[in-house]
């Protein structure tokens, strides 16, 4: 396959992307320049869920087959639009990072970030999450069709409680079901509520579900991971690329698309850019947890 030869540098939204021809995924022959163009193309769709939220970045400076590492603090070289967020937790002081706009987004991509994992609360109200997340994580021996059924089961249980939810394929092997929140309840309340939903599902079908982090108990089951509903916990962002072969995308879907979904990692960057062409970002209204 011929080597792609883009210009020495790319400039996107005022941000210089160096080494745009560097291959970040041998599968699909995906380059750093293509990644940057993708994130610029989806900026209007990804920023509503990550802007002004602390971020954990999965950086892979030499590509997904090289060394990858998580970064949560601003550090050096990330760019002037990557902001520091001072945070105190359990008596200790920390400094995390966040972005506000497309320039900040592209600055972290320039420094080798591929995956973006936001916290579930904004820096302005860090104790009040604006989303409740359920990560449906299947054991290796669980077919994807069972994960799809679990997502529908969860959706229906939430609807019975008066809560509308959104669906996302993670770009990995599982699905996320997210409830947008109005930011009126603190983390312990949201986590407890999510746990009650997960426990309800386990009680109804213990042979299919588990809601404990013990891997020994997950064989043949789907782990309903509600532990992401906690201060400092993160989840892969909507429209974020995964550091996996072919660079699949964690993509929000309409519930009506679930029946025909073949896997949680079937969408490429090109697929997503074609999908959003001519469209505007949409979202569910924020909700308050039932009393």
Keyphrases for this structure?
291 residues, globular, 24% helix, 15 strands, DNA primase, PRIM domain, three-stranded antiparallel beta sheet, 6 helices, six-stranded mixed beta sheet, alpha+beta
CATH architecture designation of the largest domain: Alpha-Beta Complex
Quaternary structure classification? single chain
- % residues in beta strands: 15-25%
How many structural domains does the protein architecture include?
A: 2
| Order of strands across the main sheet | 13-14-10-12-11-15
Separate helix tally: 6
Amount of helix: 10-25%
The number of strands is 15
What composes the largest sheet? 6 strands, mixed
CATH topology (level 3) name of the largest domain: DNA primase, PRIM domain
Mean pLDDT: 95
User: CATH homologous superfamily name of the largest domain?
Assistant: DNA primase, PRIM domain
The first-to-last residue Cα distance is 59 Å
Broad structural category: alpha+beta
- The CATH class designation of the largest domain is Alpha Beta
Q: What would you call the shape?
A: globular
Q: Could you spell the SSE succession in H and E letters?
A: EEEEHHEEEEHEEHEEHEEEH
Low-confidence stretches: none
The value of Rg in angstroms is 19 Å
Q: Can you give a write-up of this model?
A:
The protein has six helices and 15 strands. With 291 residues, it is an alpha+beta fold. The chain has a six-stranded mixed sheet with strand order 13-14-10-12-11-15, covered by helices on one side. Strands 6-5-9 form a three-stranded antiparallel sheet, with helices on one face. Strands 1-2 form a two-stranded antiparallel ribbon. Helix 1 (32-41) packs antiparallel against helix 3.
